Amino acid sequence: MSFNDNDFLSRQGWDEFFESIFKDPFLSTLTPARVIGEERELYRLQTQPDQSFWGAITGKLQHRARGRADYPAVGDWVLIDHPPGADRAVIHAVCPRKTVMQRQQVASTAADVQIIASNIDTIFIATSLNDDFNVRRLHRYMTVAFSSGARPVILLTKADLLSDGGASVITEVHAEFPGTGVYTLSMNDFAQARFFEKYLGPGQTVVVVGSSGVGKSTLVNYLIGHEVLKTQGIREDDSKGRHTTTSRGLFPTRFEGWIIDTPGMRELSMVDHEEGLHAQFSEIEELIGQCRFSDCQHHGEPGCAIQRGLDEGLISPDRWASYLKLAAEIRHALRKQDRSLYAEDRKLWKKLTLAGRARGENKRRIK
């Protein structure tokens, strides 16, 4: 099948990238479908505007899977066999992903990951302008977004809560995340927002992420054009939300693109998000490279470029603290995947401990 033969698949995002895998003689006999929902070990698949059905992976595909990332996820393209009259389709292959947003599996001590969404072009990071607004949380989401290969866009929801409509916060967020699209939204003014068409045209897929209570479900219902998702208010005692969406789903929008809604995230744990960390904190990592000693711990050592940057206002203490926390989480996650990194860290801490003891002994001798 050629992607030009099926206009619907093309409008869903099927293109030459996925078409290239059809060179395999066996795979070329299968039908492309997009995963639009997931329920336990079953996947909701779509091949036509009015044709969706459940499917399950083959035993062979399940046997080869080494982790959760090898299973289908919402947004994936899969190759299926769906005989006429069959209740379920059979998923033979998961197509390579152009982009993927993922996090560490929640409540897991293993190195496995959870895919939030795949084959997305844009990530709408929604955060509310209520008392729960937090720039450090945005650092976390942006690190994950930059690692995905998709374009991050920040949506400041419930702007009507502020007297200036969020203008002051936009200035702050623009300064913290230069080059990233930042928009304000008020619940009753979605129709006045003119930026949706830019990101949700035919063939484009957007995922909406954020904490519970920031208005994701209300926004997604507007973009879809009718109420599909239930909405709930926030808790008045702490301005935090209640979970409304409990599973991921891919929906067509009024702008002819596609939207993936996700459950509110109370945790967004790091995995192999080094690329996103480098992209977001490039100025900090540039300063680290200027330290006099390659093993500088940035705790008052002579020639520490980070300390100089903090003293001169080149980086803020909050931004430095965010970097340290995220870098430590990523390193911890990578150690789970690679035992050699764990051994390397143990050697480094042993070296630092011995050096600290030596400094202490020298001070005692001087006294």
Question: Would you mind describing this structure in some detail?
Answer:
Monomer. Associates with 30S ribosomal subunit, binds 16S rRNA. Keywords: Cytoplasm, GTP-binding, Hydrolase, Metal-binding, Nucleotide-binding, Ribosome biogenesis, RNA-binding, rRNA-binding, Zinc. One of its GO terms (biological process) is ribosomal small subunit biogenesis. By secondary structure, this protein is an alpha/beta fold. The chain has 3 domains: 3-94, Beta Barrel (OB fold (Dihydrolipoamide Acetyltransferase, E2P)), CATH 2.40.50.140; 100-261, P-loop containing nucleotide triphosphate hydrolases (Rossmann fold, 3-Layer(aba) Sandwich), CATH 3.40.50.300; 281-366, Probable gtpase engc, domain 3 (Ribonucleotide Reductase Protein R1, domain 1, Orthogonal Bundle). The protein has 12 helices and 13 strands. It has a 6-stranded mixed beta sheet with strand order 10-9-8-11-13-12, sandwiched between helices. Strands 1-2-3-5-4 form a 5-stranded mixed barrel. A two-stranded antiparallel sheet has the order 6-7. β9 (151-157), α5 (167-176) and β10 form a beta-alpha-beta unit. It is globular, with a radius of gyration of 24 Å.
CATH topology of the largest domain: Rossmann fold
Q: Quickly count the domains.
A: 3
Low-pLDDT windows of residues: 232-245
Termini Cα gap: 82 Å
Rg, alpha carbons: 24 Å
Output the number of helix runs: 12
Task: Choose one word for the global shape.
Answer: globular
CATH superfamily of the largest domain: P-loop containing nucleotide triphosphate hydrolases
Mean pLDDT: 83
